[in-house]
Amino acid sequence: MVNRHLCVFVGLLLIVIVYLKTWSNIFPFPLEYATQNLRRYRTSRLTSHPSLTGEAHHHIAYLKVHKTGSSTAQTLFMRYGMDRNLTFVVGNNKSWFPNIISLNDTVISGYNIIPPPHGHHYDILCFHVVYNRSAFEGIMPKDTKYIGIVREPFLQFQSTLRYFNPETVFGDGRNLSTYLKSPKLFENPKEISFTNNRMAYDLDSQPPCFSSMIPLK
């Protein structure tokens, strides 16, 4: 009886060994194979456009403006930086979403951004933060390229309404017509607003300017 069980066990073991051996011949080292493919893909992406002979820039400050299609553009910079092992400016404020450094302030070393690794400097800034050229220059290399994104204002406003469904516009049974008749009645100056000229605010224009056409022009 014992010998019979032993034979069955040995037989099953041989079947498993043969199966694994056959599988490994068909799909050798799947994880290593996938890693090699990823390396080949990244290399081919970097060399597949020989006609593009311009100089590559590794130092980029991209102003991610709310509801302008900025997340779509952000993915380009993130993939570019990750492919080249570049260092990103990342917010350390855990109360915000991961792609936000600050909604009402600019970058401040030692306060709202994580320091770069020892021996490294920042290469790419592409998360939500209020623009301030001197603050950006204080953390980014001197050859940094500055890029921003904007959108036709009313289309940006429409996108904001759909995404945030803001209390300032739709609270207490209000509708858009009521809000547009007198926006200042519903905008709390002590709170962060996404409906009161948010693009201008991200570009470092201050709320007192929003009620006058002179500074806007």
Q: TL;DR of this structure?
A:
One of its GO terms (biological process) is glycolipid biosynthetic process. With 217 residues, the chain is mainly alpha-helical.
Structure commentary:
This protein is mostly helical. The chain has two domains: 57-149, no CATH class; 153-216, no CATH class. The protein is 44% helix and 5% strand. It is built from nine helices and three strands; from the N terminus they run ααβαβαβααααα. The protein has helices at 2-26, 30-47, 70-83, 133-139, 153-164, 167-170, 176-181, 198-202, 213-216; strands at residues 60-63, 124-125, 145-148. The chain has a three-stranded parallel sheet with strand order 2-1-3, covered by helices on one side. β1, α3 (70-83) and β2 form a beta-alpha-beta unit. 15% of the residues are buried.
Radius of gyration: 27 Å
Cα shape: extended
Amino- and carboxy-terminal Cα gap: 97 Å
Average residue pLDDT:
81
Query: Based on helices, strands and strand pairing, what is the structural class?
Result: mainly alpha
Low-pLDDT stretches are: 25-31
Biggest β-sheet description: 3 strands, parallel
Instruction: Give the topology string: H per helix, E per strand.
Output: HHEHEHEHHHHH
Order of adjacent strands in the largest pleated sheet: 2-1-3
Topology (SSEs and partners):
Elements: H1 2-26, H2 30-47, E1 60-63, H3 70-83, E2 124-125, H4 133-139, E3 145-148, H5 153-164, H6 167-170, H7 176-181, H8 198-202, H9 213-216
Parallel strand pairs: 1-2, 1-3
